[in-house]
Write a structure and sequence with these properties.
The complex is a heterodimer of chains A (245) and B (238). By secondary structure, chain A is α/β, with parallel strands linked by helices. Chain A is built from 9 helices and 10 strands. Chain A has helices spanning 43-50, 72-79, 97-107, 113-126, 142-154, 172-187, 199-205, 223-228, 233-243; strands at 3-14, 17-28, 32-36, 58-63, 66-67, 82-85, 160-164, 191-195, 208-213, 216-222. In chain A, the strands form 2 sheets. Chain A has a 6-stranded mixed β-sheet with strand order 6-7-8-3-9-10, with helices on both faces. Chain A has a 4-stranded antiparallel β-sheet with strand order 2-1-4-5, with helices on one face. In chain A, strand 7 (160-164), helix 6 (172-187) and strand 8 (191-195) form a beta-alpha-beta unit. The longest helix of chain A is centred in the last third of the chain and has 16 residues, at 172-187. Chain B has 238 residues and is mostly helical. Chain B has one domain (11-229): Orthogonal Bundle (MetI-like fold), CATH 1.10.3720. Chain B is built from 9 helices and no strands. The longest helix of chain B is centred in the first third of the chain and has 34 residues, at 15-48. Chain B is flat and about 70 Å long. Chain B starts with 14 loop residues before the first helix and ends in a 9-residue tail after the last helix. Classes of the chains: A alpha/beta (245), B mainly alpha (238). The A-B interface holds A 48, 51, 53, 72-73, 76-77, 79-82, 84, 86, 88, 90-94, 103-104, 107-109, 135-139, 152-153, 156 and B 130, 132-133, 135-144, 146, 150-151, 154-155, 158, 231-234.
């Protein structure tokens, strides 16, 4: 098994408050891992530490065999290889959809404008939003914005994708369109780490589920096993709460 | 009141010329100081928004020093005190060789003073951009400089256009303080006309009208800029 992401002994605290306690996780190439757990369990912080946009105090992270350096400039090069999708989309409001998708392609990957646009066109077609390239983010629905955000990340030809609660800020009727894009990505073999409360997505797409609570990784299990017979009492309690309704 | 009105003095030689020269000097001093203030203020504002404590100490000290000392006193300090504090050769050069030392001093003093105020506004504008924007920029591999240039500053500047407008207005009004170190700007010229002709009402009315016209022009220009850079789909200030 080839590891795409290796996280070893990750710890982080805000002052005296620990938010991550000695977390380790390996993600294989092409694997889809869903991270779940109660709110405040450190899931978001954990996923943001993977590409270093949240600094950790201890631990080692390697992407595709390469250690994530602590120097910002060196880290930027590795970060560019990992796509990230945020809860609140974080599209750049002053740029059009096309400019959003092309910005990092042009300024980080040094692609020509034409190359970047061609890449964007292909991806926009895939998510069915070719007619929105001249629109500004605030002119789009939440679901459309999140699909554009996924396209913006994919345009960088990432080796892995991180999702931080990608559907939590969406109206219920828009969750499906975003999950559909993510499911398709998973089927194509993209390496994905997804923080989500969508257990339906986890069941359909995840190879393994990571359960976090109070800054700790409590359990890592094959998806089917996690839902059928979670090993820890805390995971059992969590599942009974969120699957009850 | 027994006052012999004579609006005609304003168009008589040499007074009309004096007025014109005053207007030109006010515009020159203000615009040059404005360029210094905007570029230096932006730079200091960017560094002031950084997370480094040492950096914030330096920029914070600049802001506190230049924002809290009265502009009039700053003009005097730059003009009368600084040349004496410098090494002898530099001080002599400032006093003897520098062409139009009073104009240069006024521009520098007004520019540095206003830069401290613009720095605070730019830093506030950057702080007003949601934190996720900087995260998204860094996550995509943009460097810190690129993130500021391409993502944070374009949004911050749109936020600070209204406060910047009043800062630019203030520069034109504050430029009148330059008369205290001998710059013949608009206020000084109208005072000169008053003492030559005893027609103070006419002279100062002319100055008032000119300052108003400048202010309204600046306001109009900034409103045009604000409309032009407004992001489609987001409501602009009306």
């Amino acid at each position: 098994m080839v590891e795409m992401i290796r996280i070893n002994g990750l710890s982080k605290s805000y002052g005296d408050v620990p938010v991550l306690k000695n977390c380790s996780l390996d993600v294989a190439r092409g694997e889809v891992v869903v991270i779940c757990g109660p709110s405040g369990s450190g899931k978001s912080t954990f996923v943001k530490c993977i590409n270093g946009i949240e600094p950790a105090q201890a631990g080692r992270i390697a992407i595709d065999g390469e250690d994530l350096p602590s120097k910002p400039a060196a880290a930027a090069r590795i970060r560019a290889r990992i796509g990230m999708v945020f809860q609140h989309f974080e599209l750049y409001p002053h740029l059009t959809v096309m400019e959003n998708i092309c910005l990092a392609q042009i300024h980080v990957l040094k692609r020509s404008r034409e190359e970047a646009k061609a890449k964007a066109h292909g991806l926009l077609r895939r998510v069915g939003l070719t007619d929105k390239e001249a629109a500004y983010p605030s002119q789009l629905s939440g679901g459309q914005q999140q699909r554009i955000a996924i396209v913006r990340a994919l345009a960088m030809d990432p080796v892995a994708m991180l999702f931080d609660e990608p559907t939590s800020a969406l109206d219920p009727e828009m969750i499906g369109e975003v999950l559909a894009v993510m499911l398709e990505l998973a089927r194509e073999g993209m390496t994905m780490v997804v923080v989500t409360h969508e257990m339906g997505f986890a069941k359909a797409a995840a190879d393994r589920v990571v359960f976090m609570d109070c800054g700790e990784i409590v359990e890592i299990a094959e998806t089917a096993r996690f839902f059928a017979e979670p090993a820890s009492e805390r995971a059992r309690l969590f599942l009974s709460r969120i699957l009850a309704h | 009141m027994n006052y012999a009105w004579n609006w005609g003095v304003l168009v008589q030689p040499p007074y009309l010329e004096w007025l014109g020269q005053g207007i030109a000097m006010t515009l020159a001093v203000s615009i040059a100081a404005g360029i210094i203030a905007l570029s230096l203020g932006t730079l200091i504002g960017i560094f002031h928004s950084s997370t480094s404590g040492a950096m914030r100490l330096v920029t914070g000290s600049y802001i506190n020093l230049f924002r809290n000392v009265p502009l009039l006193l700053q003009m005097f300090l730059w003009f009368f005190v600084v040349p004496e504090l410098l090494p002898k050769a530099a001080g002599t050069w400032l006093k003897r060789e520098l062409p139009n030392p009073e104009i240069i001093t006024a521009i520098v003093a007004l520019g540095l003073f206003t830069a401290s105020r613009i720095a605070v506004q730019v830093a506030a504008g950057i702080a007003a951009v949601p934190g996720g924007q900087s995260m998204a920029a860094r996550a995509s591999g943009l460097s810190t400089v690129q993130a500021y240039r391409l993502v944070l500053l374009p949004q911050a500047f749109r936020i600070v256009v209204p406060p910047l407008t009043s800062e630019f207005l203030t520069i034109f009004k504050n430029s009148s303080i330059a008369l205290t170190i001998g710059v013949y700007e608009l206020t000084a010229r109208t005072q000169q006309i008053q003492s030559f002709t005893y027609q103070g009402f006419e002279a100062f009315t002319a100055a008032t009208v000119v300052y108003m016209v400048i202010a309204l022009t600046v306001t109009t220009l900034m409103t045009v800029i604000e409309r032009r850079v407004a992001i489609p789909g987001q409501s602009a200030r009306v």
